[in-house]
Structures are given as C-alpha cells and as structure tokens.
Amino acid sequence: MDRRPNKIIPADLATVPGLDALEAARIEVGAIPSDAQAIGVGVYTDGDVPGEVGFDRAALEQAGFTAKPGSVLNVPRAGRPDLVVIGLGAQDDLTADVLRDAAAVLMRGAARRERVGLRIDDLAGVEVEVATRALAEGALLARYRYTVLNSASTHIALKALTLDIPGYGDVDQPITQAFVGARAAVVARDLANTPPGHLTAVNMGEIAESLGERFGFAVELFDKEALIALGCGGLLGVNQGSTEEPRMIKLTYTPSGESSGHLGLVGKGIMYDSGGISLKPSDPMHLLMKMDMGGAAAVLGAFTGLRDAGTTATVSGWLMCTDNMPSGTSYKLGDVLTARGGTTIEVKNTDAEGRLVMSDALVLANEDGVDAIVDIATLTGAALVSLGSARAPVFGNDQRTVDLVTAAAATVDEQVWQLPLERKYRPQLDSEIADIANLGGPFAGATTAALFLEHFVGKTPWAHLDIAGTMQTEKDDAWRTAGATGFGARILLEVARGFAPAS
Ligand code: BES
Ligand code: MN
Ligand code: ZN
Question: What is the pLDDT of residue 1?
C-alpha cells in the first residue's frame, strides 16, 4: 500500500541531511587564517593565560570565567574575530575527552560562525595526533543538528575549523579518523531523529543501499517474501500488525587485504514501537519510540566508517526493521512464533518485540560462522531505569568480547557498564507451551532480555549493548546534541576497526 497517497510526506526527505553538512566541513591544523570569524583560545586553571586572550586571570575571574572544563567566555570584538575563551581545567588532568568536550564548547560559543579557529598553546603532554582527533571529532559532533523539517531553523553549519596547536606534523590520519567517527554517529543520529512516517523499514533499506555504494559495503535487502523463505518468524511476527513491509538489511564489509577475522553486528530496527496489542499508554515518553531503531542506525552508521577507518576485519551486519503496531492483523498475546532455526517463542507481551526481531538475526549470524557477535538494541526500559541516560548496560557470554566493547567505549567516550548475565533468572523465560517465552519477571528486565538473546546466540562469543537510555538526550550535553545521540555507532566502529578473534 502507498503510505504517501497524498504526497504530503515527500519520500525524498528520508535521507541523511546531517551527513552532507558534515562532509562539507573542512578541518585543518596550522595557523588560523585571516578569514576566521571566531577564535577559541584554551586556558588552563593553572599556568599562564595566553597573551592572545588579552585579559589576565583576575580579569577573567571577574567576568565569571573559571577555566574549569565547560567554562566559556564570549568576547565580541569590533572589526576582529570573536574571542571565545575556553576552560581546559588543570594541565595534569588534560585528556582526549577534555579536549573533545572543549571543542564542543567552542562550537556552541561560536554557533553563529562558519569559520572558526582554535588555539591551544600547550597540549600538556597529550600527543598531538590524539588531540587533533579529539578536537576535530568534538567539533563535528557538536555542530550537528536535525533541521530539515524546521523551516524556521537558524542553524549554521560549520564550514572550516583550523586547529592551531603545538607540535603538529602529519595529522591527516587523525583528521580522517575524526571525520569517519563523526560520520558514523551523524548517520545514526539522522536516522533516529527522522520521524517514523518519514522513515519506514523500506526507506531504511533504500538509504542503506545508497550508503553502501558511497562508503564501500554490500547491501542485501530481504523483503517479506524472502523473510518467509528464511523462516524469520520473529521479525515477521512483530511486523504482522503493520501496513508497512518489514526489511532485513544485511550489510557486508570486506577488507581490501587479508581479513583479520569476522565480526557480526546485529541491530534492533523498530521504526516505531507502539507496543502493539500490549499498547503503550499515551505518554510524552513515547515520542521517543521513533528512535527504537537506534541500534540498527548505530550499526549502519558504523558501516559507513569501516572502509575509511582502514578496517582489517570482515564485518557482517543484520538490521531487523519493522514497526510494532496494533491492528486486526497484529500478533497477539499467547501467539507462538517460530524463529529462524526453529525455536518456538510464546508471546506473553507484544511490547517485548525487540528481542523477537533480534532472535532471527542472532541465529543467522551464527550460521554465517562469525567469530564474535556484538548486538545493539533500545531493548528495555529497565536499562534506562537502572543506569539512566549517561551509561549503557553491556552483557555478554564471553569476557573478552565484553572487554573489547568496554575498551572501545572508553576510547570514544561513550560510557558503558557491564551487568552480570545472571543465569539464575533464566527459568523466568520458561514457557508451558513453547521453547521459550518473550517475557521475564518484574525485576532485572534488562537481564532477562539479555538472557533471551543468549538463547539464540549459542556458544559464539557475544556482547549485547542495551541503549534504551543512552540513545537520546533531552538537552545538548557537550558534543552530544539534543535528540538522538547516535550512541554506539562509534563504539561499534572502534570494535570492528582492528577486530581479530581470540587466538
Ligand atoms: N523499545 C522498548 C524499550 C525502551 C523503553 C526504549 C524506553 C527506550 C526507552 C521495548 O521494546 C519495550 O517496550 N520494552 C519493554 C519490555 C517489557 C514489556 C518486558 C519495557 O522495557 O517495558
Ligand atoms: Mn516494545
Ligand atoms: Zn521496542
């Protein structure tokens, strides 16, 4: 059925507008050019205030500037570029994360400016390559905004940023890595920010195809018929109530040289989660359910970076895309679905749909013989309740794989926390009439969801990220912009980049 019969929703708005803005930005290292409209200058809480600031520490303090991370002082100057004084904290505490945040602060302070410079006189022991990457990445991520549907938007994209930092030599590599990471996150943000009527599972497949051509990975689309042939009863069951077709989107990246290993990535792609027959109550919170494809978006975002990041592993991705809707054709409580591989699943709650669509993909990843699986899903409200929006729970059946995810998360400053995969709770998923039920007890909901997934993972080394809490932020928070955060895209890219199985 044509969901856009009156063409009020133009199909071509289902794109990734933030990506074009990102690719148009230029980042260089060197002397700040004369056409810069704003210049940021980094100031530590200790040591000298750079002369370029033009004020001494006492004057800065008088103006309320503390030089702590996050502090900023805007000084407009007649006939000269704006001065934006940026706090860097104590020199001993300087890290890549502090620099990434500082670049974000500059982007906010110079939000009306297209051409910006940033001067830091002393990197306090942080390597110039590390600093370059962090500063560039922070700036690119912080300048993102989803504006295509807002005709009143006055957002100004970044055209040029020049980093004037000491000791620079060949910084092409760190700048490329910054762009590649930012691209992964921006693609994920754009997709998650797009309204559900503008981005159906079918649209998602089309976007994946065009991104695959552009960024060097193969895309295979599985429509309803193909999914029936594969026996993907989890995805098909959830899709039953929707007038939109489902799509399983299979992504494959093949490295140019010898492959260092084979990593499988699985993403939950619920384009809109109404809860289905177990309908969610009317609540502003459910505005967020257009982002219930944040896992699939993170996987697709990560794929856009694999080639340019120089990934040496083979990477396969499965995006499990459909809406979860109530209707006369919906799957019902008490229904039994048969997932790929034959496991029967009793549906005790149609709102526990994410684990159902993931089950088919985990089995398919196993069949492909991947060395490890990392899955990512906006899976449970319990993840949000337990760790809030700043940290994502990570679970797994293999400590090494969990550690790969944890280390990658630390590198990109997206926080995760390992929770135990407490198998004592596994009997909560036992069913009287099927192999397994999709609902556990009232407590430890993120854990019982992970235990459900583990059933389909088998013995393959596996880690699971529940991003229900971290997928969005209400307000701008350093380089995380309000709305979808793209959480996980950069983690997955970092995990994949040098992936090799345990020897
Ligand atoms: N998509 C939701 C989880 C979610 C909640 C994501 C809040 C982001 C913010 C998921 O499909 C869901 O509805 N989970 C249920 C599971 C329950 C029925 C076992 C939940 O967490 O309430
Ligand atoms: Mn749900
Ligand atoms: Zn959901």
Answer: 42
